[in-house]
Amino acid sequence: MADVELIIDHLATIATVDARGSFVVHRDGAIAIDNGRIVAIGSRESIVASHDARNGIDATGMSAIPGLVDCHTHAVWAGSRIDEFDRRAQGQGYEEIAAAGGGIRSSVAAVRAASDDELAAGAARRLAAMRRLGTTTAEVKSGYGLDARSEAAMLRAAHAGAALADVRVLGTCLALHALPPEMPSAAAYVQVAIEEILPACRELATAADVFLERGAFSAEECRPFLVAARALGLALRIHGDQFSECGAIALAAELGAASVDHLEQTGADGVALLAASGVAGVCLPLCALYLDLPMPPARALADAGGAIVLATDFNPGSAPCDSLLTAINLACTRLRLSCAEALAAATAAPAAVLGIKSHVGRLVAGFAADVVLVDDPDWRAACYHLGEVPARVLVGGRG
Ligand code: NIG
Ligand code: FE
Predict the structure, then answer these.
(1) 102 CB under 6 A from ligand 1?
(2) What pLDDT does residue 132 have?
(3) Are residues 269 and 385 in the same domain?
(4) Quick one: pLDDT at residue 353?
(5) C-alpha–C-alpha distance, residues 64 and 39, integer Å
(6) What spacing in Å lies between the alpha carbon of 319 and ligand 1's midpoint?
(7) Cα–Cα distance measured from residue 321 to residue 342, given in angstroms and rounded to the nearest whole number
(8) Fewer CB atoms inside 10 A, N or C side of the chain?
(9) 315 Cα to the center of ligand 1, angstroms
(10) 272 C-alpha to ligand 2 centroid (Å)
């Protein structure tokens, strides 16, 4: 008889990618948890017979899925973009607003003017809301600071907010998000990003990211920044093909990036190149919905053998939505993924993008006890119910 802290018992179904990478559903199951980790998972009879638990959760009528891993967010920001939203509602375009100095640049002005405490409080509030909606691990990008001080302040705020909200957070340095107003040229700013911003963010981030797009940065401008980031040991991410195909996938393949994210405009050649490259395709259906862009070609990418991932892109401009479950729902209704594919794309697959797949994103013995309980005997309710709020969310067995 093993002593454990907690058993979640009487689970009607447990759905997860297993240790070998297969999608499995356990019925009439239980999860034994100790020291923040899963000790045993599977049939309740054998788990209850072999474990003594100090605490129990009776999950009769419920299902368990892994804590969701949101691998693409801009959850640290300041100021408001509601006015811009209203202008877009009246017909102005997202790129038009950005070209006139609004959009990302308006968030940059607000972040630079905010105190560290204000940034951390906003991050904590948003991460707590994400946690209530099932996200137990989030990647958070900088990108609204665009100088060494403010970019590092954003990432420190992400980590401070994570501690307050009890969510796992990984930082990403998105220095090449927009050209800051004080810089004379993209070339000059790329130098600042390499020499000042990357070193200031190195200890706060596990990845670097760029916005490779017309009106933002070209592949030629992104390359030296990404090469410098890789030399510092950071994983590489690329915002690509959101409004136009500008060579993001080819650059990601060339540099061995972890992912290309967005893909709303990716055509058949891009899908084939991405699938063959081994670089993950992160689909952001909430952003496509919100900006009324084409949906990313997730079905074609999956059928071509590519690694498909889902994320919210939670940000004040193009996707003010904190619910990865809603992105999962859109993946089933608009991207033509099955419930199992969508759940894997929001748990095990993003953990791989973030470099944490050995211990996060699956309900498997030895993994972090990050568990979402859904109040339905069929786990697919998590995908089916538009606007689902989980019954309970545990991070490392807490919550
Ligand atoms: O992923 N595409 C670039 N960056 C964000 C939007 C940022 C913003 O509008 O503030 C995105 O959609
Ligand atoms: Fe983004």
Answers:
(1) no
(2) 98
(3) no
(4) 98
(5) 15
(6) 8
(7) 18
(8) N
(9) 7
(10) 23
Q: State the first-to-last Cα distance of the chain, in angstroms, to the nearest integer.
A: 26
Give yes or no: residues 155 and 39 share one domain: no
257 within a domain of the structure (yes/no): yes
Query: What residues in the chain have per-residue pLDDT under 70?
Result: none
Closest ligand (CA of 102):
1
Is 217 a pocket residue for ligand 1 (Cβ < 6 Å)? no
Tokens for 328, please give them. 């999962």
Domain-located, residue 399? no
Per the structure, how many domains does the chain have?
Answer: 2
- Predicted confidence at residue 211, as pLDDT, reads 98
Q: Would the CA dihedral through 339, 281, 367, 76 be positive or negative?
A: negative
- The residue range of the domain holding 186 is 68-353
Shared domain check, 185 and 98: yes
**How far apart, in whole angstroms, are the C-alpha atoms of residue 277 and residue 257?**
10
Residues 117, 35: one domain?
A: no
Ligand 1: residue whose CA is nearest its atom 6:
318
Statement to judge: residues 57 and 80 lie in one domain: no
Q: Whose CA is nearest to atom 3 of ligand 1?
A: 211
The pLDDT assigned to 183 comes to 97
Cβ of 211 below 6 Å from ligand 1: yes
Would 228 be classed as within a structural domain? yes
What DSSP string runs through 218-254? -HHHHHHHHHHHHHTT-EEEEEESSSS--SHHHHHHH
Cα 40 to middle of ligand 1, angstroms:
40
Same domain, yes or no: 54 and 81: no
Q: Which residues pair with 138 in a beta bridge?
A: 70, 169
